[in-house]
Write a structure and sequence with these properties.
The chain has helices at about 5-25, 30-55, 65-90, 95-115. The protein is mainly α. Helix 1 packs antiparallel against helix 2, helix 1 (about 5-25) runs antiparallel to helix 4 and helix 3 runs antiparallel to helix 4 (about 95-115).
């Protein structure tokens, strides 16, 4: 994992949150373009998951423990897809609100991943 990747995931998640929040403000459900954005954010989070697991397999260790680190990595990779599936069930503005909230949660998880790894040193 790198600082640049963590920042990229966070920025992409915040951009998705703003985009879906704007759709909710305009009383619009999630559209195909939103799902493409969700796919991009999810792909970044999955790349981060793979890199984190590879670094753990290579012998590097997070400051706060492997279990909590893996839990946050898996949670980060699953947050936006879960919100996307929920938005499919709610085809109103609240579906867009759900995705915006999920993307905000992902941005917070990214900050926590930095803390768990060791305060930004190499995450």
């Amino acid at each position: 994992m790198t600082d640049a990747l963590t920042i990229a995931v966070s920025v992409a998640a915040l951009a998705l949150a703003a985009w879906c929040g704007f759709a909710a403000y305009r009383d619009r459900p999630t559209k195909d373009w939103h799902f493409i954005g969700m796919a991009v954010v999810t792909l970044l989070a999955c790349v981060q998951l793979v890199i984190g697991v590879v670094r753990l397999a290579g012998g590097e260790r997070p400051d706060e423990g492997i279990g909590i680190f893996l839990a946050y990595l898996i949670g980060a990779a699953a947050t936006v897809p879960a919100a996307g599936f929920l938005s499919l069930a709610e085809r109103t503005r609240w579906g867009s609100v759900t995705v915006a909230a999920g993307a905000l949660v992902l941005a917070v998880l990214e900050v926590r991943l930095i803390d768990i790894w060791g305060g930004g040193a190499g995450v």
